[in-house]
Amino acid sequence: MTANRIATLDDVARAAGVSRATASRVVTGQGPASPKARDRVAAAVAELGYVPDAAARALVTRGGTRLAVAVIGRTAAVLDDPYVGRALAAAATTAAEHEVGVSLHWLPLHEPASLARLAGSRGLGGLVVINPTRPALETVPRSLRGRVAAIGVGSRDVPSFDVDNRNGTDGVVRHLVRTGRSRIAMVTGPSWLPCGDRAVDAYRRVVRDSGGEVRVVPGDFTAARGAEAAVEIMARWPDTDAVFALSDLTALGVLDGLRGLGVDVPGDVAVAGFDDIPFAGLSRPALTTTTHPVEDIAAGAVRAVLGSRDISPVTFFSSTLVVRESA
Amino acid sequence: MTANRIATLDDVARAAGVSRATASRVVTGQGPASPKARDRVAAAVAELGYVPDAAARALVTRGGTRLAVAVIGRTAAVLDDPYVGRALAAAATTAAEHEVGVSLHWLPLHEPASLARLAGSRGLGGLVVINPTRPALETVPRSLRGRVAAIGVGSRDVPSFDVDNRNGTDGVVRHLVRTGRSRIAMVTGPSWLPCGDRAVDAYRRVVRDSGGEVRVVPGDFTAARGAEAAVEIMARWPDTDAVFALSDLTALGVLDGLRGLGVDVPGDVAVAGFDDIPFAGLSRPALTTTTHPVEDIAAGAVRAVLGSRDISPVTFFSSTLVVRESA
DNA sequence: CCCACCCGTGGAAGCGCTTCCACAGCAATA
DNA sequence: TATTGCTGTGGAAGCGCTTCCACGGGTGGG
């Protein structure tokens, strides 16, 4: 009981009357130890309230005990979306189940080399990037290759875990067609997020197959942009009878913009979103959308990074259509 | 270039032709170093892509290099609210500005001692608890006292950083009174979150002062509960002409419940929320609410924990009324 | 021209831990 | 009883880093 110092393994060993080596074996559960030694060390640990120092342990075991999670972007588009919070919760929880710590890094959108610094400590068992942009992904240091995964589709080099945009979009647009819409517009995601390309492809295909015209306007996943986009769309193609937005937030904005225009939803124009955020069911009309299994995606990414097997380039999670009032 | 090994300070020193001590001084910026040595070390660092090992550094500097952020609760009430995400973003960003790493811990609501384990590594510079419950806060180990802060009002023992619920509520309820409402009901937060008490107090005071009747029903910060609460309120006090919910999500639910009852908002009943979440402006009618400077709060908490001065028991951040359509 | 002084430097210790290795016991076999 | 084999143990090295301390070589003043 030397002062109020935090107990070290040496203290434990001394209190238990064994060597530090033995104490270490008991504490880690690795290596042989007699029942007697085991008991005495356990007692000493309990009495002293000993907790192993993670830094010291990491130093010698050379890591694997920590997982970095990086979120790219501090803009409203990222912050306003419940998506990131849910992903973080799932990632943290999954990592904890594997007894791995999580370090959080919230990086500005445009700052090359910001991910590079994460490789800093050798204690890093892996890296999971949420909202990955291609430039950001390119700064991931080579030393981490094989231990990196992206939540959302990123670059070719980094394995991605994402909702299947193509199938999801396909489902939504087909639903629109099926319910009699034939002049369907789409609001995409921001151009710096590569994840939208497949969605646009799917939209294009379905629209063309049904003999419709492709009407695409760029979005940025914000509600504000959705409202603008609605006005743009109706000005450019006044006969539009459905709008599909690749984000619920944007779809909600579209709803708002359409309302401002005096357009009836779903009477005149149907609106569909993507993600099924908690508010989707709360808007009037309630938003028709597609689920986004973020928790599963995040958990999958974490498990993949932590696992020992090679990670496949892309893992898609399927989403299901949620039909409410707006379409 | 010995194999693909990660460069250590020794490598840098050797490459720069100086001792490890000198290299360390240059890298950390502490202690004297000649311009020449500085240049050569910097060059070596750049060439080798050297990044200091956090574990090794923490081991010898005895911590302060890492901040733990813990979120309590994995329920929808926590996950659905953009609040937590914003707080995390701000906390991570602020910590990064101080060159401090952040470890994220997302703990189940009821698991005593879960916070205790965080004290594990001595490298811990502090702890910030988001969504603090009293029981959780009680498990914070003594070794961390003085380096802990709660985002949201928690226990008496842990300094709190929160929005000023009292003033905020006061402002909202006064607004309701001012606009002619006299039978005002309130939906509170969950009982396990102590932060709501001051709000209820404020509500009580204003209502009593204006000669009204206190009508309080319990909430849990979810939208679903808001819808239920609306029905409850209208059944119990049919002449209610305003409902104030301590959470926007709940207020949105109230809006929904009222709509189901055929009650006109704001014609028959005014509805006001709390927090000004992104979606608040998107509902119909748009929600009247009060801002919640989460970013400032989180940044304040992080700075306080990281700072050297004593933290005052409670720091309140003021919120401002946002009048939209619903009240 | 010599001494005191100071700046910059390298040697070495040590942070708390794991793990290799050698070795001491003891039981089982010859 | 002498040998083999095993299990459990302690000594010691070393992970990558910071920092104390002693020391060398420049500068300035006497």
TrEMBL record, chains A, B:
<dbReference type="GO" id="GO:0003677">
    <property type="term" value="F:DNA binding"/>
</dbReference>
<keyword id="KW-0804">Transcription</keyword>
<dbReference type="Pfam" id="PF13377">
    <property type="entry name" value="Peripla_BP_3"/>
</dbReference>
<protein>
    <submittedName>
        <fullName>LacI family DNA-binding transcriptional regulator</fullName>
    </submittedName>
</protein>
<keyword id="KW-0238">DNA-binding</keyword>
<keyword id="KW-0805">Transcription regulation</keyword>
<feature type="domain" description="HTH lacI-type">
    <location>
        <begin position="7"/>
        <end position="61"/>
    </location>
</feature>
<dbReference type="Pfam" id="PF00356">
    <property type="entry name" value="LacI"/>
</dbReference>
<dbReference type="InterPro" id="IPR028082">
    <property type="entry name" value="Peripla_BP_I"/>
</dbReference>
<dbReference type="InterPro" id="IPR000843">
    <property type="entry name" value="HTH_LacI"/>
</dbReference>
<dbReference type="InterPro" id="IPR010982">
    <property type="entry name" value="Lambda_DNA-bd_dom_sf"/>
</dbReference>
<dbReference type="InterPro" id="IPR046335">
    <property type="entry name" value="LacI/GalR-like_sensor"/>
</dbReference>
